[in-house]
## 1
Amino acid sequence: MKKILLTLFTVILFCMTALTVNAAEPEGNLTIQLKIDSPVMLVNSEEKNIDENGTAPVIVNSRTLLPVRAIVEEIGGSAEWDSKTKTVDLQSGDDNIKLEIGSLTAYLNNEPYTLDVPPAIIGGRTMLPIRFIAESFGLEVDWDSEEQTITLTKKADQPTESDTSTEVSTEASTESVTAEETPSESANHILVAYFSATGNTKGVAEKIADTAGADIYEITPEIPYTADDLDYNTDCRSNKEQNDDNARPEISGTVENMEQYDTVFIGYPIWWGQAPKIMYTFMESYDFSGKTIIPFCTSGSSPIGSSAENMQSLAEGADWLEGQRFSSAASTDDITDWINSLDIK
């Protein structure tokens, strides 16, 4: 009898232990934890070297740099280094990232992004900005300033949602939707107006409009931006506009019934830390007095910063709420949580 009870107790203890382990880590999730100055990372609690040379993450200008090959391979991706051009090519699923040593311009699916700190070679190792890479590949990034740790999480039920569109918009008017073109049984009072040169901001804007039940309007330039216009490493059109305080690129089309909206989301990519100058054109084209304006932006790693504040003077009498920055991989859950926090009436 005692032997039977002992066996039964052992089985029960084993089952409880298994349940505890499964509760601690959802099945299929991948969690990678890194610590500043430590050459070891934890992959689902298993210790692994970041690289074979004992390289550890470092902080440069408040951004974490580290060798990323092992991390990219853990999520099923690949990393290629070209020593001649000093460029890195990262691939995960359908998403591709290209970076160059010393350059603040990174490319996600051929769309240029401005980094806060450039990739660098430190101690003979190629060190890359982990937040931009992780978020671009759809991972959640959590920074613990007290413990100096970075936790990357890839959820099994939340695959990468990066917008892989790389084509520059060439339609002057068909993509823009005015309120008159948006069928509804009653006039909507929320509008999402956005500018997207290559598609990433468009993806976020559409999720915001769906979640908020809003009308949507694309701010389309009269002269569309080409790939050469967005080549930040040259004296391109976008660089010239951003450096000219008086630049106001013309917009094709208008919001015909702006007066019906009392809440307006305005979205844009971050260009050199600021909103593109076409957003200034848009803000100066309408009377926003009495309206609530909610800015949002997309970027590789740059925060929304002063980009929204610098447009506030163009909309006197409006109530500006605090803006939000999203990566191109922002999930519907992320956007829903943000919109719920706004308590829009």
## 2
Amino acid sequence: MSASRFILIACAAWLAGCAGTPSGTAVRGDSPDDDRIPRLRSATDGELIETLLADYFRSLETPAVAAPAAAALPQRSGLSGEGIRVIAAGPAMGEKNGLWHYVGTRLALAHCGHAAVDAELAALRAKPGRVRGLAKRAEPFLHYLVGEAERRELPVDLVLVPMVESGYNPAAQSPKAAAGLWQLIPATGQRFGVEIAEDYDGRYDIHAATGAALSYFKHLRGRFGGDWLLALAAYNAGEGAVDSAIASNRAAGLSTDFWSLPLPAETRAYVPKVLALSRIIAEPERHGVRIDPVQGRPVLARVEIGSGVRPADVGAAAGVPEEVFKLLNPAMKSLSEAPRRKYRLMLPLKNAEVIAANFKGTEWVSATKIVVQKGETLAAIAKRHGVSATALAAWNGLSISSRLKTGQELLVYPA
């Protein structure tokens, strides 16, 4: 079955199972000049992500499905290999038991217990299909997000936050102006380097938004003395709300831990949801939840494109079905207009390989091999290359305490 045939079948099945639109998020693309994502309003966002996006990525791993093929492009497309850079999303991880097992064994918050967490856990256990569905929606992004968290030495529990924030919908939009996988509001996004312009909103850019959200979490970790429950609360309610709650309790001589603070009801429910998901992912069988295994190989690639090329032509050249392409790249206001500047797209890795194979001059950016000099340590090399020592060790099959030898070769993956 070809990839295009797959997407037609998936789209038909999706349309046949229409349900009401969920509250809290909306599928964008309502205005006539906004062609970022499908304008299919009658199904839930979750069904869209599961049926079109996750299933397409699964199809690429199925031997019976034909490899992606580039579409014929008009001469005016201007697309050539010159100015194109393809950056694969890091090394394989968790290959022996799968990526969810890899995540489950590294969760830092799975031990957190409280009656509120138990209540959320009971609600999720009563509907095991919900967790399984969220896990499936996460599949296309999981390897990339785990790698980005480890690169910054942040707990992998944070990859569960988009389950609560957006249901892993990269085009999610809330009534409170939060947007994207991580539901960033404009001020927070711009504070941590996200560009918001007339033709582009980086909060919907998977790479840019992930970088901003994880940078924000790193800031919150320091801001609240390494207390991840307070950091999660501040991500949801804002630093000011948590500061005010702490000040109020201190003035009253009360405890200032998360569970004791007078925070908004939404926040008091938000943190236990993340913690309950962490406990389930750590031990899914114990909680009666079956999560489909995910291979630990990278499945996403960033593709940097020079100015003057229509995003739609890049998607066609890579052989990506249109709806999948839109779901992966909702940050662009229009896919049919050529930006006047360099820009970045997210593609399935196998589709990015089609670009590299068919357009001479495409630069494929992969790991850099470095040679250890006398006296160098993992920590020193990691700092020089802007990555965490934990990530550098993992990329090279080492432990954080490994001693390096002069002349030893290490791989460093691009940020």
## 3
Amino acid sequence: MHILRGEAKLVKIFVPRVFGCRHQFVSIVSMKMTKYPYPIWPWQLSQGFPWPRLQFLRVPDPFRLDSGDDLPELLLAYEEWGQVGKGLPVIIFHALTGDSHVARHTYQDHPGWWDKMVGYGKPIDLHQYHVIALNVLGGAMGTTGPHSLAHDGHPFGARFPKISLYDMARAAKILADVVLGFNRKPVVIGGSMGGMMAYAYALLYPDSILGTMGIGAPIYHSPWAIAFHTVGRQAITTDPDFNGGNYYLTGSYPRQGLAVARMTDMISYQSPQSMESKFGRSYQTSEHDEFQITSYLRYQGQKLVRRFDANSYIRLTEAMDHFDLRQRDLSRMKNVPVWMVGISTDQLYPPDEIRSHAELLRESGIKVSLETLRSPWGHDSFLVDIRPMGKILRKFIETVTHAVVE
């Protein structure tokens, strides 16, 4: 483990907390930090973490979760791009195994997961916008999660409490209030899990945003989606090296379990068309003892092992599976422009499912715009099919900001 100590700047803010349907303003003293104050784990180190422009917000107050449990403090890892403090704010929430590193800051920087979408002259144009992205609560890349240290100085591991997407949205709101203040309203965008989190954010803070977009994101999980995550969690927890979730200081890691979880998920992220196009029945070796698709899935499994934490996978997929926007007061969102993007070949969240969820929200009086990303690449299309995705993003941002100007 490597430990970096950080320089801090105190910031005092008053944050609106939602208790049921009531708002209560809570005084929070937070610290902006430029260095990571905790141990750096192998999956972080392998990615060059902490990246040069990565920032941290430390909130030393207890953070109450939907479960009733308290986290002793919060550390939020985030990055900013573009017209910081001046441009229209755009908050981007990442997918399940993502992080705050949406795009490069310089040509020498590590690649970002949405480099082709966020940048100067790109669909989310840094000439115009102030882009903010954070690693979500429970994540593996800097924000408080199972790998973080508990009161006893040891990693939480299995002791890390269950979290909800609403908890993740509340943590993001603390960061938004510090970075943006109360007068600058952002647009909120997310793909997959990030889109579900964007819906949660819109429901909790409808008066604080200009609009929200969920890409390939349902308002609740079907049994089909829950099934994939169930297999993934089972693979991890039955790995002998899982050690009940307390593996950080053992020298072992549930590599096989996390790899199998990723292999399973990658099937749901593809489509029959994309697999046929990429691999067909081609073999990986001249001996014809392994198919290309087999090699690809094994590679993706091992790749995730090198860059993610198994306990984060468990807590985040649990939060996704238990999320159900229908259980909340949907009337809170009636004045929020909500854009939902279905993906034509998505096997995990089929376009008909997204369409039915959009209709459900419309029946509750919510202004929903439904778009379809037509692409052969399955659920991951929003990450790879840049041209059509870029057109939808531009249309969304221009529409919601134009409505405000009018």
